[in-house]
Amino acid sequence: MLMLRWVAATLLLTVFAIVALGNAWAALRFYARGRSGSQVPFLGGIVGLVGVLTLPIGHVSWVSWIPLVADIGCLPLAVRWLFARMRKKG
Known about the structure:
Number of strands: 0
Number of domains: 1
Structural class: mainly alpha
Radius of gyration: 15 Å
Distance between the termini: 54 Å
Number of helices: 4
Order of helices and strands: HHHH
Largest sheet: none
């Protein structure tokens, strides 16, 4: 069972890394060249959160929020969207 948790956590964290890097690349392209890319909002952060919680290491739940912040398509995108909505209303 322990090996299965390691394999699952490794796969989930690999998917998180790929999606987070893809979202960062899309954001850089947007800001540098004005080209819009395909961001997969929230997917990377949520997969990373589940990956961290799947790790068979004790006491890692206190760092489970890091993927949500590290993936630009998750919490940073949500905050930017909220600020844009507030600015549009005001």
